[in-house]
Amino acid sequence: MSMRAPQREPASDLPQRITIYEVGPRDGLQNEKTVVPAEVKAEFIRRLAGAGLETIETTSFVPPSWVPQLADASEVLQLLGDDGLGPRRPVLVPNERGLDRALEAGVGAVAIFGSATETFARKNLNRTVAESVEMFAPVVARAREAGLWVRAYVSMCFGDPWEGPVPVEQVVEVSRRLMDLGCDQLSLGDTIGVGTTGHVSRLLDALDAAGIGADRVGVHFHDTYGQALANTLTALRHGVTVVDASTGGLGGCPYAKSATGNLATEDLVWALHGAGVETGVDLESLVETSVWMAGQLGRPSPSRVVRALAGSPE
Amino acid sequence: MSMRAPQREPASDLPQRITIYEVGPRDGLQNEKTVVPAEVKAEFIRRLAGAGLETIETTSFVPPSWVPQLADASEVLQLLGDDGLGPRRPVLVPNERGLDRALEAGVGAVAIFGSATETFARKNLNRTVAESVEMFAPVVARAREAGLWVRAYVSMCFGDPWEGPVPVEQVVEVSRRLMDLGCDQLSLGDTIGVGTTGHVSRLLDALDAAGIGADRVGVHFHDTYGQALANTLTALRHGVTVVDASTGGLGGCPYAKSATGNLATEDLVWALHGAGVETGVDLESLVETSVWMAGQLGRPSPSRVVRALAGSPE
After folding, report:
1. How far is CA A137 from CA A60, A130, A144, A288, B168, in A?
2. What is the C-alpha R_g of chain B?
3. Which of A84, B186, B264, B273 has the most CB atoms around it within 10 Å of its CB?
């Protein structure tokens, strides 16, 4: 027998409830070698919602040649019908053409994907940081006009595989410019997973001082150096209540060397439920979903909770 | 290129310096299927010391039939000579016979291994918790008489695979009885890795209220549910300055189902050096040591930092 749930011992320094922003269907599947059929993607999203995840990024309207894994974005949304729409089902849009496709599909929320560093902006968007903000301006303006909720990702906030350490001031500057376009939420990405706890504190403090409070910030950690959960808890202690995670620990970044998977949603849920923080998630259902998805992908889940619980059924 | 060291951003809520209590040669190798030759164990310990680890648990004087992996305890210490002795080179002793062998070998420090739960005490020591404390009394008394430094492990502090949740009061009671025997340091073991951050806080607060302050406590987390680093940082925020870790993430517990490896020393060092906490460790040397040891064991290291750094040499 293993323990199926953590002993509940509330942590006084954490929020009472947080929102998990599930990125598995987009950030996760985009980085899997196996191309998953649209029907499986739609079923994955339905199961995630069934397990209690309220906010799910469903797909990405990038050009199919960039990310063949998500070339079926429109088809996935068609299969989902109303379950794929509304303000809690954002889709990634890289530019105005992506926004057009998202609007055609009838979505209620979009996310843009910026970079804190020049090198990654060039590699990922073929633009300077300043040019990318210019490119995003009409995307955000038109999305807002259409009544959509808008999120701005900032990648490479804690380190860059080509540039090394990234100054906190540089991240604040890019974040401010993107939020000034009118975005509703910022997501701070540690794309290569190098950040540590004091760094998280300093960045959140600096953003707050620049007028971007924790109530508008989500955090997005990768576990490349084993720091994702510890950094997430530090962010929650600073008042952040939105956490990006990927069910089963799927994902990574195809353009960044040595990037491995996102924080696994199950490992996050174990930490939070133990600490008395509500998430709305049913952990058993989520683990079942990861086991099912691992079967579709033909390999075991990297989530430690999934391995611990699925490896020893009662 | 990957980043070889984290960006240094001091965390104001952590101690300036901590002591890593390295358990790889004992807790790690005891749980590997491969039986490593004594020469390799001695070389492993020498390399760990060379990488800056000041406190290293070298081996265990349990009966060879219990743990064949460490049947060569005396030989390892002979090979190490003075490098294996002194107050910073504890050995595990399960009982008086083990202490006799440790004294013969000339060690300067020993550790006893108690349990917070009756089921694990019975399975691991073939005794009740009360009987095990009685058994340890003469071990600690004689060790102190001989001038040795003494540590008391308490296992199953956060959950037990047979009993489930473990009441904090029960852990405090066992800890108090063991420390009352005259031990210098307590090590709180989350043997099956189920604990979470609020639970860590509550246990440390309860121990403090019972007269066992953070200055006499070490923490020992396993990463079975992905919680080890986050829980360790919580303990450090409560004033703990001794952390058990296993280089390369070696280890587990052969008597506890679903227990996986200890917190990897490298992942801990990444977190601490990033946060400006001194450890005395040279991370590059430690990673080299893990890569070498993984070669001896014929399998890759489970440490995420080792995989990130060793997978992408500059």
Report:
1. 19, 11, 11, 41, 54
2. 18
3. B264
CA distance A82 to chain B (A): 35
Determine the longest span between alpha carbons in chain B, in angstroms. 56
CB contact under 8 Å between A7 and B162, yes or no, is: no
- Three-state DSSP at A35 gives coil
Considering the candidates A102, A253, A268, A287, report the single residue annotated as catalytic. Answer: A253
**Exposure string (b/e) for A213-224, b if CB count within 10 Å is 16 or more?**
ebebbbbbbbbb
Sketch out chain A's domains with CATH numbers.
19-310 (3.20.20.70)
Contact call for B161 and A225, based on CB within 8 A: no
- Please tell me the distance from the alpha carbon of residue A66 to that of residue B147, in angstroms, as a whole number: 68
Strand boundaries in chain B, DSSP class E: 19-22, 55-56, 91-92, 109-115, 149-155, 185-190, 217-221, 242-245
CA distance A24 to B259: 27
- At A81-95, the pLDDT tens digits run 999 999 999 999 999
From the CA of B59, how many Å to the nearest CA of chain A?
A: 27
Interface test with A, best of B225, B269, B272, B277 (most A CBs within 10 A): B225
Token representation of residue A30: 């985009």
Query: Mind giving me the DSSP string for A271-307?
Result: HHHHTT-B----HHHHHHHHHHHHHHHTS----HHHH
Strand ranges in A193-258 using DSSP code E only, listed in sequence order: 217-221, 242-245
Which residue in this structure is represented by tokens 């902006």?
Answer: A121
Confidence at residue B144, expressed as pLDDT on a 0 to 100 scale:
98
Ramachandran angles phi, psi of B152, nearest 5°: -115, 115
- Name the residue with tokens 């099956």: B192
What does the pLDDT look like over A127-177, one tens digit per residue?
Answer: 999 999 999 999 999 999 999 999 999 999 999 999 999 999 999 999 999
Residues 6 or more apart whose CB falls under 8 angstroms from that of B130 comprise none
d(CA A182, CA A215): 15
